[in-house]
Write a structure and sequence with these properties.
Number of domains: 2
Helix content: 25-40%
Number of helices: 6
CATH topology of the largest domain: Alpha-Beta Plaits
Number of strands: 4
CATH architecture of the largest domain: 2-Layer Sandwich
CATH class of the largest domain: Alpha Beta
Order of helices and strands: HHHEHEEHEH
Strand content: 5-15%
Oligomer: single chain
Length: 169
Amino acid sequence: MVLNETDRQLIAAIQDGLPLASQPYAVIADQLGITQQAVITRLQALQDSGLIKRMGVVVRHRALGYDANAMVVWDVPEADIERIGKLLADETCVTLCYQRPRRLPDWPYNLFCMIHGRARDSVLRCIERIIDRHGLHDVDHDVLFSTRGFKQCGARYASPADQAGAARG
């Protein structure tokens, strides 16, 4: 897929997030001088082509009072990774779950899940419930609590010139 100027402006218009409006695609359409349906159709084409992998929400959990945030890293046998990954991802206290390659000999972990909580004790209790519920007592893991927060944002694709063009419409 070849990007045209409208595509570049569309990507620039959404990369900092959708407008907080009842019809965010209409706001973007007005900025770009195209129809709302054209925005929706073009975004779908960009996703279908793989140029946009996904669109999602970035929640600023610390601003909501979730300061006890832990990445739980697991050393899961390869034969069990899909099954255990699904179990973890389906847990209500798990906000993110994904597989990564091990980096032996120093890093044996291959499954990661994020748990956000208001207090360390509640996060640790959640982890214990998960271990008990799914019989993961023999699966090596470690709990890594975050010590500071970083600004969260999506991927950056558009250049500053593209962003300026999108803002001008």
